[in-house]
Amino acid sequence: MPQESQKLREELVVSRQSSAGTTSFVLKDPASGRFFRFRELEYFIAEQLDGAASLDLVQRRVQERFGNPLSRENLEQFLKRLGALGLLESHDPEARHAPRRRGRFAGSLLYLQLKAFDPDRLFGSLAGRMRFLFSPAFLVSSGALILLAAFIAAANGPAIARDFSRVFQLHTLVFAWLTVFVVITVHEFSHGLTCKHFGGSVHDLGFLLLYLQPAFYCNVSDAWLFPERSKRLGVTLAGAYSELLVWALAILVWRVTDPGTALSYIALVVVATSGIRTLFNLNPLIKLDGYYLLSDVERCRSNSQPEKKGLRLPARPDSAAAGSRRSRIFGGDPP
Ligand SMILES: [Zn+2]
């Protein structure tokens, strides 16, 4: 049974978001790095939890504000859930000081995650120096470059296909692997930099072993906090866009270098792998970039109707946003 006067933890970060006439609130727990999405009613109740208000008072305020009664049972269930999620001030001093952060290693054999380092300061200084990447002039000129490369690729299809046969040979495989690694780094850094550019923080970057396949990830969950959908989409799209740009540059390099040279070889590796990866990555059925893209677009369309009679709360806050928003490459759903 929850105690009479509960208190919402003060250090929670709250972002108010409106789309298609619906308001919701995204809460970030900085201690655990978890995110939660509350609807208006849920957040209104959470806001009342100042450590002094009794449950009776909370019920009265809900009735005043929403014009409908909220049952005591529902309210208590909701508070219990908030407590279980660690969103309320704990009366237990041990729980209060327990470290919530994950260790460097997490997961199981099929989903092993290794945190490499905290890139926040690095991204901070890079974002300051590379502000031009987010200017309209850069977007227009890079877009033109991608178009030009697409034309060149279309016009030289047979020649590229012929050169591909030379790419994947055993003695050059390490070279190919290194090239792919660099491109993936560019992709993940683009997500992180964009998140940082828009004011988020990025504290988690590292490697994943997904079903024994190596992958790279960058945790850009702070994008959930951006009230503007365009910024959330920007963070998601940055990875694929930067990779498309690298692909375009590779096409140009391939076009102007002699076949058989190292530069021409690197360009071909990039052309071969980036294209395939972008297709995988933007597939909304796999929990990669395309999935988050679709969830951001969908969220503005779905519109939950308020209850007509009496207010009912789900026993748990809608945790559509509760998962972390990890951008990964070469992945599937984590178990
Ligand atoms: Zn990505």
Polypeptide structure, described:
This protein has 335 residues and is an alpha+beta fold. The chain has 2 domains: 13-97, Arc Repressor Mutant, subunit A, CATH 1.10.10; 105-328, no CATH class. The protein has helices spanning 40-48, 55-66, 72-84, 93-97, 120-129, 136-155, 157-164, 173-197, 229-256, 262-281, 289-301, and strands at residues 13-19, 22-29, 34-39, 105-107, 111-117, 205-210, 213-219, 326-328. The strands form 2 sheets. A 5-stranded antiparallel beta sheet has the order 4-5-6-7-8, covered by helices on one side. The protein has a 3-stranded antiparallel beta sheet with strand order 1-2-3. Helix 8 packs across helix 10 (262-281) and helix 9 runs antiparallel to helix 10 (262-281). The two termini are 33 Å apart. Residues 96-100, 300-310, 315-323 and 329-335 have low confidence and may be disordered. Zinc ion binds next to helix 8.
